[in-house]
């Protein structure tokens, strides 16, 4: 069984894994213009797959 401290670790939080993927995509695209950031975030979000989410939850023990 995981302790409360371990369960609250960002390493085991699926949403943190999703944001890491999003940040990686956005860095790769090198968006530097404020007006292009929101559309780029939406495009990056569309690249997060159900399979990604399933893996992140499984890795976190859900």
Structure keywords:
62 residues; mainly alpha; elongated
Task: Reconstruct the topology from this structure.
Blueprint: H1 4-7, H2 14-29, H3 34-46, H4 50-59
Describe the overall structure:
- Helix 2 crosses helix 3 (34-46).
- The protein has 4 helices and no strands.
- With 62 residues, it is mainly α.
- The chain is elongated and about 45 Å long.
- The model has no long low-confidence stretch (mean pLDDT 89).
- It has helices at residues 4-7, 14-29, 34-46, 50-59.
Which whole number gives the mean pLDDT? 89
Distance between termini?
Answer: 12 Å
Query: How many helices does DSSP assign?
Result: 4
- Helix and strand run: HHHH
Radius of gyration: 14 Å
Percentage of residues in helical conformation: 55-70%
Strand content: under 5%
Unreliable residue stretches: none
Largest sheet: none
General shape: elongated
Structural category is: mainly alpha
Number of strands: 0
Summarize the model shown.
With 62 residues, this protein is mostly helical. The chain has helices at residues 4-7, 14-29, 34-46, 50-59. The radius of gyration is 14 Å and the shape is elongated.
């Amino acid at each position: 069984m995981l302790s409360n401290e371990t369960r609250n670790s960002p390493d085991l939080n699926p949403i943190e894994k999703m944001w890491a993927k999003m940040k990686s995509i956005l860095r790769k695209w090198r968006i530097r213009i404020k007006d292009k950031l929101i559309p780029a975030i939406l495009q990056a979000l569309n690249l997060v797959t159900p399979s990604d989410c399933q893996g992140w939850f499984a890795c976190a023990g859900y």
